Amino acid sequence: DADVTQTPRNRITKTGKRIMLECSQTKGHDRMYWYRQDPGLGLRLIYYSFDVKDINKGEISDGYSVSRQAQAKFSLSLESAIPNQTALYFCATSDRTLALEDGRQFFGPGTRLTVL
Amino acid sequence: AQTVTQSQPEMSVQEAETVTLSCTYDTSENNYYLFWYKQPPSRQMILVIRQEAYKQQNATENRFSVNFQKAAKSFSLKISDSQLGDTAMYFCALSNAGNMLTFGGGTRLMVKP
Question: What is the C-alpha to C-alpha distance for residues B50 and B12, in angstroms, rounded to an integer?
């Protein structure tokens, strides 16, 4: 969805480095999510936020932190990157009302992260 | 907890033929939604089709249709008249009332000319 953007699109970093992935949306949605995709495992939820002051851990939050700077912005940080965090990372958004009526989420284009 | 299982890691089909991708799920909720997402080489997650659990009628979107068997907790995707552009990863996903999405491991579909 073009209304959900992620930066950078690709990143190569070294073990131990701090890295931040950013997500912005112009859909006006209140809910934002971070997922990671690994081969054979599909997408797994890292963190989610239902509004600026509400942040929750997902299935695989260890080694990650997040910041919801504004309703439109949700950042994912790796404080000290390790090779098994090499993956494709997706940001997604949804709306409280939409969640009840529809259930869908809208995805950004993904960030390919490689940790050497 | 809810789970989604896709038992076919890879499939192939000849162009213009029909293919069915399988998905089973488990949830304790009565109200939920099921989705099929397509991920082409561009990596973008594209919603293909959506089914509401309380609707018995199977969803259809052009060449894409589902076979939703609620009692069996099965949600398969049928692609008719397969096209080369259908080559992609396909993910089955389940959304509960709290809007939490759970994904299956994916099926890689190759459409052969």
Answer: 23
Closest B-chain CA to A47: B100
d(C-alpha A46, C-alpha A39), whole Å: 16
A103:B4 CB<8 A: no
Structure tokens at A44: 């797994």
Strand B60-61 relative to strand B3-5, pairing? unpaired
B72 pLDDT above the threshold of 70: yes
Q: Residue A81: how many CA atoms within 13 Å on its side-chain side? A: 20
User: How many angstroms separate the CA atoms of B107 and B113, rounded?
Assistant: 19
Give the whole-angstrom CA distance, residue A5 versus residue A111: 10
Flag whether residue A109 sits within 8 Å of chain B, measured between CB atoms. yes
Percent pLDDT > 70 in chain B is: 99
C-alpha distance from residue B91 to each of A8, A45, A97, B13, B62 (Å): 24, 15, 24, 17, 19
Band the pLDDT of A1: cuts 50, 70, 90. low
Q: Which residues of B34-66 are buried (b: 16+ CB within 10 A; e: fewer)?
A: bbbbbbeeebbbebbbbbbbeeeeebeeeebbb
- B88/chain A closest Cα distance in angstroms: 13
Over residues A61-76, the pLDDT tens digits come to: 999 999 999 999 999 9
